[in-house]
What does this fold into?
Amino acid sequence: MARMNYKVDVPSCFVGLILEKCELPYENHGHVVLADPSPILFYRISSTEIRCLVDVPGQKIPSISNGDLSNYLKTVVAPQIPVGMKDAFVATIDKGNIRTMANRSMPAVPHPTPGALLMGDAFNMRHPLTGGGMTVALSDIVVLRNLLMPLHDLHDSYTLCKYLESFYTLRKPVASTINTLAGALYKVFCASGDEARQEMREACFDYLSLGGVFSNGPVSLLSGLNPRPLSLVVHFFAVAIFGVGRLLLPFPSPKRMWIGARLISGASGIIFPIIKAEGVRQMFFPATVAAYYRAPPTQ
It folds into this structure.
């Protein structure tokens, strides 16, 4: 059995509710409400039900048993819910049908083990804000299938383990792009008392609202259709530069220039640690990793 000894980060928790008999502001679309202190998700799961996921920062949430969580949802979260859904949100809380889960993040660190291969959340986790976990898992399955397809004998576990080391490199374009985007977007979308971080949050929303390549590009990255980490970095810093441009136009001031500088610095502080955890070489230069060219074992 392969063991993962690396620390799992828990940036937040989700509080889940099922809202009944209400309508989304835009049907057939998922919704992200940029609330304070962190995002709220809505998406339809049946003709009569909408799933709501309230993100609560930190590793602990208010107690359910003594009513603290219900009070938090009604006093802090409910006022930020879209008007047409607020009554259903409060009614669900009153019914007491509330579920919670910890949101975990864990970089993929290879543990070559003869006879075993970790996949899914046992191997790699990212914040579920973007719903990228299943995309990464299915992409990993395709990579593994392609590696196993030319093989006719799976009994030599040691040789097979050596060959499958290429799996960890070949999966990187899709996995690292989605992982980095999920972590970066969560940090950007969380409310902050820092004026520069708040500007970055608003710039991200307005950037996506421009449509065209400004929305299609990030969505293709998010969905795994564009597995290019460099495109992610370009779009991320395009958002930061867009935010600085909004600050400096039409007339820059020393204060706005200082906020702009902090915005760029803050953006770098968000994305570069995530990229470092994913592996710079594996993300941007996978062809330089020896396992990238590993051929199937001969009979």
Q: What stands out?
A: Residues 254-278 form the longest helix (25 residues). The mean pLDDT is 91. The beta strands are 9-20, 31-33, 40-44, 49-57, 99-105. The CA atoms of residues 240 and 264 lie 6 Å apart.
